[in-house]
Amino acid sequence: MRPKKGWHPHEVSKLNRVLEYGESKKSSLVKGFDSFIFWIVLAVAVFENIVLPVALIPLIALTPFWLYYPVAVILAVIFGYFFVFLIGDLDNIKRSHHIFSFVIITIVAVLNVYFSTHYANHIIVSIGEKNSPESPLLLALVFTLSFFIPYIIAFTRKVFKVK
Questions:
Q1: Contacts by 55-60, CB closer than 8 A, 24 or more apart
Q2: What is the CA angle 80-83-86, rounded to 5?
Q3: Which is nearest to 49 in space by CA: 138, 137, 109?
Q4: What is the rounded distance in angstroms from the CA atom of residue 79 to the CA atom of residue 52?
Q5: What is the DSSP string of 98-125?
Q6: Three-class secondary structure of residue 148 per DSSP
Q7: Burial of 147 (0-12, 13-18, 19+ CB in 10 A)
Q8: CA–CA separation, 120 vs 62, rounded Å?
């Protein structure tokens, strides 16, 4: 007897066999294009993690302390969702690709936010602004963790099959 909802187990196994067969029959050109798309998406994510911290320099230098952390978190989460949207459309990304992109983007984000905050602190001191210089490492960690919140949510939904 068939379950009322969902697929019968033998249908699922047949579908998996068909998908694996199709994956094995891909031409080298298609596999190369899949790899090319992954590298483009990774380049876009790295680029956004370079541009966004630089754009935060005036925010850090000229706004009160209580404002730039929430703005940095909101912007990082928005760009994180953008990254998840791009990566989510790539069907055949291997686990190693996910780990590699996670490591590269983390390194780029931490370094860029760190140096942008460090530069903003020099601006604060040089213009005599009343804001106190901010910890570059703390803001870099907050930004990076916020950037990966959507990625972690999407990954746990996928692993635990939550809708």
A1: 56/113, 56/116, 56/117, 56/120, 57/116, 57/119, 57/120, 57/123, 58/120, 60/116, 60/117, 60/120, 60/121, 60/124, 60/134, 60/139
A2: 155
A3: 109
A4: 9
A5: HHHHHHHHHHHHHHHHHHHHHHHHHHHH
A6: helix
A7: buried
A8: 9
| Annotated domain spans of the chain | 41-160
Residues near 92 by beta carbon (within 8 Å), at least 6 away in sequence: 23, 34
How many CB atoms are closer than 10 A to CB 40? 11
- Separation CA 39–CA 116 (nearest Å): 25
Contact 80, 148 (CB under 8 A): yes
Calpha distance 161→163 (Å, rounded): 6
First to last CA, the chain: 26
Closest to 110 measured CA to CA, from 153, 151, 140: 140
Q: What is the mean pLDDT of each run of 10 residues along the chain (163 residues)?
A: 69 83 78 81 85 80 79 87 76 73 84 86 80 78 88 80 65
Model pTM? 0.69
